[in-house]
Each structure stands twice: as C-alpha cells, then as structure tokens.
Amino acid sequence: MKTSKEKMIAGELFLDKQGELFKERQHAKLILHQFNQMDPTRVKARHQLLKPLLGQTNGRFYIEPPFRCDYGYNIELGENFYANFNLTILDGAAVVIGNDVMIAPNVSIFTAGHPIDPVTRTAGWEFSKPIKIHDRVWIGGNTVINPGVTIGENSVIGAGSVVTKDIPANVVAVGNPCKVLREINENDKKYFYKTEPFPELDF
User: Fold this and answer.
1) 27 flagged as catalytic
2) Residue in 27, 33, 47, 114 annotated catalytic
3) What is the pLDDT of residues 10-33, one digit of tens each?
4) Domain named Maltose/galactoside acetyltransferase: which ranges (predicted)?
C-alpha cells in the first residue's frame, strides 16, 4: 500500500493520516526560517544552507529571501536560476525548472490542489500535480502558476498572470487566465521595451 508521500508525489488523492508530511513541512520551515533571517551579506552561507533542502540543483542558482516552499526535495533548479523576493513554491509534486530561468518578485508556484467537491475537500483530501518550466523562461511579478502546468522554453509570462494551462515555447503570454499574446520574433532583438532600440551591447 502506498504511503501518503508516495500518493502525493504520484498525483493521487491523499490524506496525511500519520503526520509524516506535516513533519517534513516543519523541517523545511525551520531551514527556511534560518535562510530568511540570515544576514543579507552572508550570501555563500545562505546558499549552503538552502542547497541540501532542495531536490536537485544544476550549477549556480540565487534566490532572494524571503523564500518559502513546502518540502524542498521536489524542487529541481537548472543552471543560472534567479528568483527575486517572495517566491513561494508548494512542491507536493515535482517542480522542474530549466536553465537560465528568471522569476520576478511575488511569484507563486502551486502543485498543490484540493477537490472541488466540498465534502471531500473539508475531509482533508488533497492532491499535487507537477509543474515544468523550461529553459530561458522569464516569469513576471505577481504571477501564479497552477498545478499541472508546463511553460515552454524562451517564453515570457507577463506580470500579474494566472497560468492555468500549458504555455507553448517562444511566446509572450499574459492575463487571468494567462493566454498567448504573440510569438517572440525578430523585432525583439531590436527593441528592449516597446519601440526603444537596443544600444550597442557587448555580450
């Protein structure tokens, strides 16, 4: 018989009857409390404290405090990941983030959900569905990403979006619910903000 943790990670309905998941969330809270209260100049120490909590990190990553998550072990970060202030990840299921992903302030990533049926919901049943964010995605501030969503490579999610469905690669998407606004195109290599051209840059 599967444990509550196994059911959670598999995306099935579960109840945490034995309190195992509660204990793991408490452990994560203790680590994150230290992380969030640490002297801001102690960047290396903050990194060393957080890295063992996370499931996998592939190279450099930087997360501005405060940062919150449920467990940590279901989070996989790619190379050169950056998250600004107030990132929240409810990682009951896998949250896989690719390389060169940028996340603006106040972004929430939720794998966790509860049944629509009120009787089942109030009985404490819940579920989690995985989220995947591919390489070179930029997520604007105050965005919410809901359970089971995949965001394709290079795409930009506009500030204030609520992402309820998959977003394809190479698009700008925005809104509540988040929808594709346009494809990323050659003009985006000429202009950094609307009609303002790029200066001569040394990459």
Assistant:
1) no
2) 114
3) 999 999 988 899 999 999 999 999
4) 5-59
